[in-house]
Amino acid sequence: MSKQRLSSGTVRIGLVQSRVVEDIEANLEATDRRVGEAAAGGAEIVCLEELFATPYFAQWRRSRYRFLAERIPGRLSSFLSSCARRHGVMLVGGSIYERASGPKGFNTTLVFDASGRRIGKYRKMHIPHDPAYYEQYYFEPGNLGYVQIPTRKVIIAPLICYDQWFPEAARINAIHGAQILFYPTAIGWSGDMKASEPTAARRWQQAMCAHASMNGVFAVAVNRVGREGNLAFWGGSFVADPFGDVVARASASQEEVLVVDVVLRKVRESQKGWGFLANRRPDSYRDLTR
Questions:
Q1: CATH number of the domain where residue 248 is located
Q2: What is the DSSP letter of 73?
Q3: Which of 87, 168, 170, 264 is the most exposed place for a label (fewest CB within 10 A)?
Q4: Alpha-carbon span 236 to 176, nearest angstrom
């Protein structure tokens, strides 16, 4: 467990929940505008959604979409850097399709400080492969490990969408000192799912609330809205506090910029009060890695 002293101040975060269209340039213009709106509301850290610049192409297995991948640095990483610098915010850049040496790439989150300097890079570890989410056709599992980013006020950790279903990812970040987990996301209703699994959106929220509660950290999920192909994204971006309570939530159907004050002393109160991290028994968990 990290011995780093945890801050007890307040940090204001912004969640950018958007619709995405086919025109990448239009998506970038809209993103820049909404990051500016969050900054005008006092946000110090702003988070975008997964694959924020493009439609969610992974609902289809089509080789032509592999041409959307780009090297880093590249067009999208340069945009994120300049956006952070222009608006004077730390930017958790949702995710982009990062080109690699083979036919597949990575689903990658880049984090920039308020000067536009890149301070973090995380590649999505858990890659789904289900109807409407054929991500293994496009993405390799991440190979950078879990990444914690210390800043002047807070330690953050980016995870991406499907990572939110795995408690190990949240726990590893927490024991290394992360106080806020950011989950850029693209999830919604497909086919007859709304009829066959009507509680799916609630289950999604509950999973991250559980990570927040069991680890004594804040969990921030930033989803998209609108219909793209066969998916109707369910929005509902939210912030859960270290006791597992949802303290702010965006619309299920509308674009929205949500600005929320995060009181970091709650991290210490939850972790010390309940002792979930201090009383772990790592020696008894060997079966997890067999």
A1: 3.60.110.10
A2: S
A3: 168
A4: 28
Secondary structure element (H or E) that encloses residue 90, with its range: strand 90-92
Domain contains 182 = yes
Please say if 3 is a catalytic residue: no
Whole-angstrom distance, CA of residue 188 vs CA of residue 192: 12
Which listed residue (47, 83, 161, 209) is catalytic? 161
196 contacts: CB under 8 Å, gap ≥ 6: none
Contact 18, 47 (CB under 8 A): no
- Is 50 annotated as catalytic? yes
Q: How many domains, in total, are found in the chain? A: 1
Q: State the catalytic residue, choosing from 44, 47, 49, 50.
A: 50
**For the chain, how many residues are written?**
290
16 within some domain: yes
Q: List pLDDT tens digits, range 64-110.
A: 999 999 999 999 999 999 999 999 999 999 999 999 999 999 999 99
Q: What's the rounded Cα separation, in Å, for the pair 175 and 71? A: 32
Residue 4 lies in a domain: no
25 is catalytic: no
**204/16 Cα distance (integer angstroms):** 18
What does the pLDDT look like over 111-154, one tens digit per residue? Answer: 999 999 999 999 999 999 999 999 999 999 999 999 999 999 99
Q: Tell me which DSSP letter residue 159 carries.
A: -
**Active-site residue identified among 124, 209, 228, 266:** 124
Residue 41 in domain = yes
pTM of the predicted structure, to 2 decimals? 0.97
Residue 122 structural domain? 10-279
Instruction: Indicate if the pLDDT at residue 43 is higher than 70.
Output: yes
Helix count and strand count (H, E) for the chain: 6, 16
Provide the token pair at 82: 């300049």
